[in-house]
């Protein structure tokens, strides 16, 4: 396991692609204010198509086209919005700036009232780009990419699920309970944390495997190096449900094999230089109090 640090900077700071939290048409005044800040700093903004339609604007580009036109992306909303932007723009390897207009805000650390000041810093290079590990999930000849976690869950609330697991082809465990979470370090403070999994520093390259409501006192969370392939085989006549970052679901049948490995690229998040992970834990979760 290792911590990935980077001195990477944006190649240009001229065009920003903006994606807004869905179903938030009341955000129009805030968006126009943010857009004004960007213009004052010499940065053009282009709205993603669905965001533009939500606000009643005629012009907007589909996300994949938008990614080809801009230097970086801006997510305006909460962590869920940022997760969606990162996953859906992953193939373009664009850094993403999160402006916090949500609730918790683990990933989106620039507040609305800080945008103008942050853009001043952005223009002079006073910021950092975090490279966050992503995971790939291969099942039924399909591939899903997750930023936080992949969850293998039971189909019904009235029964438990059995899952057999291998690491690099060697059997290591059988899980019997509500399911299993395969989390990235970034996702360690999400669902993984709520079921008793460990907090892992977000720039670490590692997998966290955490059972959900295990029917065994011996089952405990595991932190594993990222250069492995984890294989899960469903052993349940009802099959299972696969949840990708809590946003997409995919049903799998009995005896289906699900393979999970580190993605070949990393998510890039633009942050303030003074951002400190442990201060975020203290602020959001009362860590250390």
Q: What's the β-strand tally?
A: 19
Helical proportion, percent range: 10-25%
Number of DSSP helical runs: 7
Arithmetic mean of pLDDT: 92
How much strand content do the residues show?
A: 25-35%
Helix-strand topology string: EHEHHEHEEHEEEEEEEHEEEEEEEH
- Classified by CATH, the class of the largest domain is Alpha Beta
Low-confidence spans: none
Q: What count of domains describes the coordinates?
A: 2
Structural class: alpha+beta
Main location: cytoplasm
Family: Belongs to the NAD kinase family.
Subcellular location: Cytoplasm
GO biological process, one term: NADP+ biosynthetic process
Provide an overview of this structure.
The chain is of the alpha+beta class and 289 residues long. It folds into two domains: 15-133 and 266-285, Rossmann fold (3-Layer(aba) Sandwich); 135-262, Probable inorganic polyphosphate/atp-NAD kinase, domain 2 (Tumour Suppressor Smad4), CATH 2.60.200.30. 20% of the residues lie in helices and 35% in strands. The chain has seven helices and 19 strands. It has helices at residues 28-40, 49-55, 63-69, 79-88, 115-123, 191-194, 277-285, and strands at 15-20, 44-47, 72-77, 96-100, 110-111, 128-132, 135-139, 142-146, 149-154, 161-167, 170-177, 179-183, 206-212, 222-225, 230-234, 240-244, 248-252, 257-262, 267-271. The strands form three sheets. Strands 1, 2, 3, 4, 5, 6 and 19 form a seven-stranded mixed β-sheet that branches. The protein has a six-stranded antiparallel β-sheet with strand order 8-7-18-15-10-11, with no helix packed on it. A six-stranded antiparallel β-sheet has the order 14-13-12-9-16-17, with no helix packed on it. Helix 1 (28-40) links the parallel strand 1 (15-20) and strand 2 (44-47). The chain is globular. The model has no long low-confidence stretch (mean pLDDT 92).
């Amino acid at each position: 396991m290792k911590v990935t640090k980077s001195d990477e900077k944006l190649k240009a700071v001229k065009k920003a692609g903006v994606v807004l939290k869905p179903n938030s048409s009341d955000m129009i005044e805030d968006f126009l204010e943010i857009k004004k800040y960007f213009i004052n700093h010499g940065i053009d903004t282009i709205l993603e198509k669905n965001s533009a339609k939500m606000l009643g604007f005629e012009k907007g580009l589909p996300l994949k086209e938008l990614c080809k036109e801009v230097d970086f992306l801006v997510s305006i909303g909460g962590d869920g919005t940022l997760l969606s932007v990162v996953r859906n723009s992953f193939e373009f390897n664009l850094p993403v700036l999160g402006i916090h207009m949500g609730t918790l805000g683990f990933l989106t650390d620039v507040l609305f009232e800080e945008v103008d000041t942050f853009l001043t810093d952005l223009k002079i290079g006073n910021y950092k780009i975090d490279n966050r590990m992503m995971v790939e999930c291969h099942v039924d000849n399909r591939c899903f990419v997750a930023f936080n976690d992949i969850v293998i869950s039971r189909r019904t609330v009235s029964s438990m699920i059995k899952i057999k697991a291998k690491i690099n082809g060697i059997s290591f465990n059988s899980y019997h309970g509500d399911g299993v979470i395969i989390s990235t370090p970034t996702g360690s403070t999400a669902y993984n944390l709520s079921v008793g999994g460990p907090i892992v520093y977000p720039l670490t390259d590692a997998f966290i495997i955490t059972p959900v409501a295990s029917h065994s006192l011996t089952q405990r969370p595991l932190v594993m190096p990222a250069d492995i392939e984890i294989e899960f085989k469903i052993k349940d006549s009802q099959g299972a449900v696969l949840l990708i970052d809590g946003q997409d679901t995919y049903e799998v049948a009995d005896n289906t094999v699900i393979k999970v490995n580190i993605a070949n690229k990393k998510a890039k998040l633009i942050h303030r230089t003074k951002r400190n992970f442990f201060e975020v834990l203290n602020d959001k979760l009362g860590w250390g109090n």
